[in-house]
Each structure stands twice: as structure tokens, then as C-alpha cells.
Amino acid sequence: MTSQEALVNYTLRLGDTSLILAQRLSEWTGHGPFLEEDLALTNIALDIFGRAKALLEYAAKVEGKGRTEDDIAFFRSDREYFNALITEQPNGDYAKTIIRQALIDCFDLAFYTELAKSKDETLAGIAAKSIKEITYHKRHSFSWVNRFGNGTEESFNRLQKGLNEIWPFAGELFEMNEVDALLIKEGVAVDLSTLKANWEKEINQLLAKANLVAPEGTYVQTGSRKGLHGEHLSYILAEMQSLPRMHPTAKW
Amino acid sequence: MGVVNFEDLFEAKLAKNDIIEPKDWMPDNYRKHLIRQISQHAHSEIVGMLPEGNWITRAPSLRAKLVLLAKVQDEGGHGLYLYTAAESLGTSRDEMLDALLTGKAKYSSIFNYPTLTWADVGAVGWLVDGAAIMNQVMLQRTSYGPYARAMVRICKEESFHQRQGYELMTHLAFGTPAQKEMAQDALNRWWYPTLMMFGPPDIESPNSENALKWRIKRETNDELRQRFVNQTMPQIEYLGLVVPDKNLKWNEAKKGYDFSEPDWTEFKAVIKGNGPCNKERLASRNKSHSEGAWVREAAAAYAKKQNENYQAA
Q: Within the 64-83 window of chain A, which residues sit less than 8 Å (CB to CB) from chain B?
């Protein structure tokens, strides 16, 4: 694997993870539990789509085959997508969406803070811009986890159920392969093993504050680094890609 | 010194083009008219999120996705300011939402039509927002202060949406034959419903008289409709599209277009709840509201506990 191939794959991983998460979040637009939350979640989706666009643009540029970010987003199949499995999980109820978001935000804030120091200037620039946004996203998701955990019996039960469902997909965020190894050496990628202890500490504190218990001994689901996904992703892509694929020569 | 007559003072303010503020005395009918109009306007923004929201997950480029999502978010924001403006007249968000969800309150009938293709997203931005702006520009100078101020911000954003909608239509109209056909089909379906947005002909408009007298409204339905057609025709010609009206032609004498009236029977049917999507739109709002009930209850319960802890400390 060349450095260039590694960088394309790494950037796709980040771009796809952002794109699929934002796609899921945007399913809430117009359907939120009340107007202010509808707007807040849409705003978060917008930030993450913006990041996805910047990352996929960069992936296309590094790849150097004349593709655009839209070619990359709309003309790859699920086996060519590298988004983390946690992002493609269905939204479920608002508690599940929120706990998924909290686990990701906690990872993302630490991750992009480190990536902002990358020797790759484009990735560092995108990361630097994202830090402020993710800080707000994390404040939002963490405060709702706390509110649901300490709100009503129903909100607590829904939150615990959501956590049980989403938890097996969180561990994959820290998985590394030869792409990471190569790019860490070059000072481009973030060594994910250095983020894990702090993520666990912060998440344990959050769960404790919300009276939640993390499921014990859950097997970690993985596969996305190799383009192996669950059954949900091909449906997400079928919907998202339908129009460009029906009119492959069209400009929008 | 004589007894002050509040009604005379109110009339005098209107005559001087002064702004009425929430704490000022106002006649009951004026208050009721405004609550009805502003809350209907807010509901229209909220229900209007649905037909366009229908295409968010299928927007055909990343840029188009960002633009559409931001637009739908703006509509929600407009709903929020307008609910707040209506609350300043002594109603509550819960009361207004209840009226919407039970089908008592009206919202703009245009949103009871479906968005069948991506071109409809363009047509809604270009034509529907364009028509809305015609109505709303005059509301920036409406007599009630909080409404007028909300409209200043809303108009700015709506003009932006209209330009984005037109831009989307230009991509289609100058795109592939299939894209152009999509654009023409959208124009065919949205033309008459858009003309209906200005309301019934002046001779049949029940709410217009007071609205004009109170300077809530400043031009009549027919005047606005005519202006909309005059303004939109050159845009349609530029796109190379054809208006679905054989009677439409320039009238040199009136320096405006002659055009066919929309089908007012259909207009009345849609208002009465028989449009293609009335039931779906209301069902969708009700579903989100009822599925969100536990979220709102949890937030309230948490706030109450926080408050008790604060008091105890």
C-alpha cells in the first residue's frame, strides 16, 4: 500500500463516517420531538454534512482520478463504503439517537482535536474547523443523556435500551489497521489507542451521572474498515443515491 | 381634560403609520385577526418543512443536500419567531399547536400538494417562496411591531430561498432532456396552486377588508397575484418552459399579463381538507408530536428536579 492509497482510504473512512451519520440525523428534520430540538438536530446534521463534503472532496483530490466528491458519495456501493458501523444504525427513538450521538461526539472531539495537529495540512484544517462544532454537539448530546437519565422513568428506560442496542458498535471506532500504521508513522493519522482510556473515563462518568449501566461483556461488532457493513447501509445508499444513479450524466 | 378614548388613539396611531406594540391598547378584533394570521403563518412554516423535507435524504448532490437542509431549518426558525410574535398577543404555543394538530387551525394550502420529483423542490423555492415573498414584503410594514420585525428577517431568508430554488430550476431546465422534462412537469403542477396562494378574488375575500383598514395587509389579493405573474413570466421564458395556461398573454393596455383564474373549486376543496396530502401532513405533525411527548415530559421533570435541588441548596 502506498502512502497515497492509505491517505485516500483514511480520508474516505472519515468522510463516509460523517456522511452516513449526517444522513441518519437528517431523517429527523421536520419530525423532532419539539421545534427547538428539531432545529438543533438539523443544525448538527448540517455541520456534519459540511465536514463530509470537505473530506470527500479531499479524498477525490488525493485519489487523482478526476472524480468529484459527488461521484464518490453517489456512485460507490456499500462494499466500497468505510463508515463506522455505529453511524448506520437506525435512529430508533430520540433516546437512541442521542446516546449514539454522545458516544460518537465524545470520540470525535478527542479525535479531531488530535487530527488538527496532523502533518497533512488539509486534514488538519478540516479538523480545526470541526473542533468548535463538535464541542457544541457534545454539549448537546451529553446534556440530553443527563436529562433523560434523570428525567422520568420512561426516559431512563428508553435511554438504557438505546445504550444496550448501540453499545456493541462503539468499540469499532478505535479499530486500526495497516492504513493507520502507515499514516501514524508519517505523522498524518491519529493513534486511536491513545484516545481510548480517556473516552472510557468520560463515557463512564456520563453513564454514571445518568444512572446507566453499560452492557457487560458485549462482543464488539466490526467490519467497516474492510467495507463490511450491516444490512442497513445498502438501504441508506439506495435512497441517497437513487437520483444521481437514475440520471448518471446529469448535473444538479 | 376629556376622557381618553382608546379606540380613537388606536385609530390615530394607524392613521399616522405608527407601530402598535404588545403593551398598547388594541381592539379585540384586531388582536384576534393577528393571532389567527400570525399563527397560521407559523403553522405554514412548520407544515412547509414536510414537503421539502421529503427530499432531504435523496438530494442529488452534497451541495444540494446542504442547501435544502439549511432551507428547511430556516423554515423551522421562521415558525419559531412567528409563534413568539403571536405569543406577545396573549396566546400560548401549546394552544396554537393544539389548534394545528386537531385540524382547527389553517395553514397555507399549498403544502397539501405533494413533492413528487426533485424539480418540485426547485419549484417550491422559486414559485411558492416567490409568492410568499409578495405577500410578506408588505408585512414588513404591517402595523403590529413584533410581526413586522419578524417579517424583516423572514423576507431576507425567503428571498435567498427563492434564488436557490430558481438556481435549481436552471440546472434542470438547461440540463439533460429528462431534467428539463422534470422541470416542465413541476411548473405544470405548481403554477395554479401557486396562484391560489394569494387567496380568493377580491370580490370574495372575507378577511381582506379589516386587514386593509388595520394596515395588517396593504395590497389586495388580485393586485398581488397580478404582480406575481408579471414578475415570474420573464423568468419562465428564460428557462424555456411553458406556462400551462393557453390564455396567458401580454396585455399592452394594462402593462401586464392576462391569465386564467385558478380553479377556485379545487382551492375550496383543499382548504376543506380534501387536497392530496392534507391528511398525511396533519398525521405527520401529530405523529412527531405524540412520539415526542415523553421527551418533553422528561425535560420538564428534569427541570423541576433541578429547580427543587437549587431551592433546597
A: 69-70, 73-74
